[in-house]
Structures are given as structure tokens and as C-alpha cells.
Design a protein that fits this description.
The chain is an alpha+beta fold. A hairpin with a 6-residue loop joins strand 22 and strand 23. Helix content is 14%, strand content 28%. It has 2 domains: 117 residues, Purple acid phosphatase-like, N-terminal (Immunoglobulin-like), CATH 2.60.40.380; 315 residues, 4-Layer Sandwich (Purple Acid Phosphatase, chain A, domain 2). Helix 2 packs parallel to helix 4. The protein has a 7-stranded mixed sheet with strand order 15-16-17-18-20-19-21, covered by helices on one side. Strands 5, 6, 7, 9, 10 and 11 form a 6-stranded antiparallel sheet that branches. The chain has a 6-stranded mixed sheet with strand order 14-13-12-22-23-24. The chain has 6 helices and 24 strands.
């Protein structure tokens, strides 16, 4: 078991842990797609958002307007129960609320309950989180940690599908993902699929988010793993949408309602760029839509990131002291396939980024991406320094790109493709100065398909 991970509770057991509990009620029935997770007065959630050493965030969405608070306690202490302030959910805000839990300390596991209008909402799965530990300048080695990742999450809805039928399937993948007990879930874009009935209004966007987020199989994962997200075209607007999209401000507003990231945009005004840290890994979430040039505009100024975001990326990479620096973006970065919406269509910008990494001697950079409805591993060799790797994980439930192995990508690592529904796992482990970053792809049953280990020394 990972040193930083929450205690493993098998999916074959349902555990209802109450804040005031002396013991847990164990019900011996399997947790499968046949289970109906009674949401009660919640449409979706609770969901754990950004968690650090002395603060955590919990998100909920209620069915109607209500007074909500979070009750929480240290799992090792039976006495003190802490409470957040009460927030009244409003229809104008999608009936969403994010609570900041301030009375937490590093390296502790906390149980929490959601109280709605004075009554606790019970859940047939653990509602808990673990704060990040103090680890720098300690005599012991840094703890291990696991980041799950995925993209392209489509949930069918009658009346809003094409005549060919629904595009989503295999929702039980979230039960397999939850069973891995990752510390973090990193959503790499297309986390919802806005339909033509949705993207032209804020109400439509909210309804699509609500429908997707309420998927029963998703709820256990939401409740006990810290979630972070960036977006791609389908949670931003129409297919292949760019900076010209008139509805991007509404899309950003709803994104902020539903994703409790630590920040939104470099200046807090434009886009959703963000970052967070997990032990000795820094993760930088790029926005590949807000500043993106139209695909059919062909000139030297064409961009995906925009100048401000490019300068920010180089700054944060150069200043980071983390062993590993993960750059997360919806569009693929290293691929040579120009048929897809990748950085291959913006070669000047991509080479500029790679040159900055090389010139500044930035160690430990790894890219992760989604979008292509398949998984693959890409590698870009660089003269005189370490190669760059990119793990692409897609899709979670949207249609699969089964012929990925036959599609062009000169930088694909041989044998490292998968054209079925999947999720990725990134694990950091090992002693100080000899850390290992393990990248792997798993299928809908949670079985490892392939992977690679990157040693700290090999990324210098």
C-alpha cells in the first residue's frame, strides 16, 4: 500500500462511516453497477477538491436550494468534531457549494459528513480524505503517492443523442478506478460533453454538468479522492472550439462552479490555468482553449497557449524544485499526427516550449494529455539531454479509437497503445535522490495493460 494513500477498503464491502461512529456498519454485498447509490437530497457529490497540508475543500450539489455544512473529524481522535460555515445553495449557482475545511493538520485522515437543513446525508461508501504530509527536510524518505488520470467522459441522455445512438459506455470503469485508491484524480479534458442543446446557454451547460456528475458509479471516487481538472473543447464549447467562442465566459463560470481547483487562470480572470503539488511532484494544468487560434488561421502567430500562458509555463517550470514536473494539457503535445487537434498543428509553439525546457536545463518534465479516445506513450529525444515522455489517457467512457496502433505518430513508443476505454496511473516512489515515476495504463477492469518506469536520474 502506498505510504500516502488512504487505507484500502475492498469494493466488495460497503462501509458506512458516520462522524459520530464508534464502529462502522459493514454490509456484505458487492459494489457494482447494480447498486443504486441513493443520492437523497444531493444531485452529486460530495466530492473532495484541492487538499493541502492545512486545508481541504469539499464540493456538493443539492437537488433543491438548501442550507449545507460539512462536519469532519480526525480519524485518530474520537472527540472533536469540526464544522464549516453554513452555505445556502442557490439555483443561480447550479445549487453547488464548495466548503473550505480549515481545522486540518498535515498527514492525517479525516472522516466527513454532509449535513443538509440540519440532517446528515448518509452514503454507502467512505467519505474521507487525507491531508498531505510534512516531508521536506525530514530524515525519512518522501512518501509514495498515486495520481489517476483520464479524459473523455460521456454519459448518454435520452433525447440528446445522435440518431446513431448513445456515445458512452463502460461506466463501471469508475468503480475499478476507485478500487485503486489514488490520492489524486486528474481530469484531462472533455470531462463532460456539451451537446448542441447545452453550449449556447449557461443553464444548458449547468444541466449537462449536473447530468454527468450525478452518474452513480462515479460517486465513491468523488467522495474520497482529491480531484483536479483542466478542460478541452467539449467542456468549453462546440467541437474544436477556440478563443473565438463567444460562450467561453459562461463555460468558465460553470467550470469554476463544479471544479474546486486551487486557482483559475494566471490572472484569475481569463482561462482556467492552475497548478498543485503532491509530495515531490508539481502538476501544471494548462488551458488549451481560451487562447487557442482557430485551426484554419495559418500564420506564424498561431498558438494554443497564448503568450501569457507560455511565459507562465516557462516561469513555473524553471522555478519548480520538484523532482518531477507534470505538464497536463487536453491536447497531445509530442505526437506528429496533424490530423488531430494537437501541438503538431502548432510546430513553432511546440519547439519554442521544448527549447525553453532545454535551454533552462529543467529537469524531470513529463507531459500528460487526453483527447484522442485511445492511450499511447510518446517519446521525444533531445540531443545532449534526457528525452521527453508523454502519457496520453483517453477515453474513460466516450467512443474508443480502436485503430490507434495504425495511426501516424513517429514518436510513439513501440507497443505502447491501447484502443479501449482506459485510465492512467502515475505513481511516485523510492528513496530521496532515487525517486521513480511509474506511468501505466489500465483497462475498465483495473488491469494493467502496459507501463514504464522513469528514474529520477534518467530525467536530468
Amino acid at each position: 500500500m502506498m505510504c500516502f494513500s488512504l487505507p484500502v477498503l475492498p469494493l466488495t464491502i460497503k462501509i458506512l462511516c458516520r462522524l459520530s461512529m464508534v464502529s462502522c456498519l459493514v454490509v456484505s454485498s458487492a459494489l457494482t453497477s447494480a447498486d443504486v447509490f441513493a443520492q437523497g437530497r444531493l444531485t452529486a457529490g460530495p466530492m473532495v477538491g484541492h487538499v493541502d497540508m492545512r486545508e481541504a475543500n469539499i464540493w456538493v450539489q443539492t437537488r433543491t436550494e438548501a442550507d449545507v455544512r460539512i462536519l469532519y473529524r480526525d480519524s485518530a481522535q474520537q472527540g472533536t468534531v469540526f464544522s464549516t460555515s453554513v452555505i445556502r445553495t442557490k439555483h443561480d449557482d447550479g445549487r453547488c457549494a464548495t466548503f473550505r475545511l480549515r481545522e486540518v493538520e498535515p498527514g492525517r485522515t479525516y472522516y466527513y459528513d454532509v449535513e443538509i437543513d440540519g440532517t446528515k446525508e448518509s452514503r454507502p461508501y467512505p467519505t474521507q480524505f487525507r491531508t498531505q504530509p510534512v516531508w521536506k527536510w525530514q530524515t525519512s524518505n518522501p512518501p509514495s503517492a498515486t495520481i489517476a488520470l483520464g479524459s473523455c467522459f460521456y454519459v448518454n441522455e435520452t433525447g440528446y443523442e445522435r440518431s446513431t445512438g448513445g456515445y458512452g459506455s463502460d461506466e463501471d470503469i469508475f468503480l475499478a478506478l476507485h478500487n485503486k485508491r489514488p490520492d489524486v484524480m486528474l481530469w484531462l479534458g472533455d470531462n463532460v460533453y456539451l451537446r448542441e442543446a447545452d453550449w449556447n446557454s449557461r443553464s444548458g451547460i449547468e444541466k449537462r454538468y449536473s447530468h454527468t456528475r450525478s452518474l452513480p458509479q462515479l460517486q465513491p471516487l468523488l467522495a474520497s479522492t482529491a480531484h483536479y481538472a483542466t478542460w478541452d473543447d467539449h467542456d468549453y464549447g462546440p467541437n474544436d472550439s477556440d478563443r473565438s467562442w463567444w460562450g467561453k465566459r459562461s463555460a468558465r463560470d460553470v467550470f469554476m462552479q463544479f471544479w474546486p481547483n486551487p486557482s483559475y487562470g494566471i490572472d484569475g480572470i481569463n482561462g482556467i490555468t492552475s497548478q498543485f503539488s503532491l509530495i515531490d511532484v508539481d502538476v501544471f494544468l494548462l488551458d488549451d482553449r481560451w487562447f487557442r487560434s482557430p485551426d484554419h488561421r495559418k500564420d506564424d502567430s498561431s498558438t494554443i497557449l497564448g503568450e501569457e500562458q507560455y511565459q507562465w509555463l516557462v516561469d513555473v517550470l524553471a522555478s519548480s524544485t520538484a523532482t518531477f514536473k507534470i505538464v497536463a494539457v487536453g491536447s497531445q503535445f509530442l505526437t506528429t499526427d496533424t490530423r488531430k487537434e494537437s501541438f503538431a498543428r502548432m510546430p513553432f509553439e511546440r519547439e519554442r516550449i521544448i527549447k525553453a525546457i532545454t535551454d533552462n536545463k529543467i529537469r524531470g518534465v513529463v507531459f500528460v494529455s487526453g483527447d484522442i479516445h485511445a492511450a499511447e506513450l510518446s517519446r521525444r529525444d533531445r540531443e545532449g539531454t534526457y528525452p521527453l515522455f508523454e502519457l496520453t489517457s483517453s477515453s474513460l467512457t466516450a467512443g474508443s479509437n480502436k485503430n490507434i496502433a495504425d495511426q501516424p505518430n513517429e514518436r510513439r513508443v513501440e507497443g505502447k497503445t491501447f484502443g479501449e476505454h482506459n485510465f492512467g496511473l502515475i505513481t511516485v516512489s523510492g528513496p530521496t535522490k532515487s525517486r521513480v515515476l511509474s506511468l501505466a495504463i489500465h483497462n475498465i477492469r483495473g488491469e494493467r495493460v502496459w507501463g514504464i518506469d522513469l528514474n529520477e536520474a534518467d530525467l536530468k
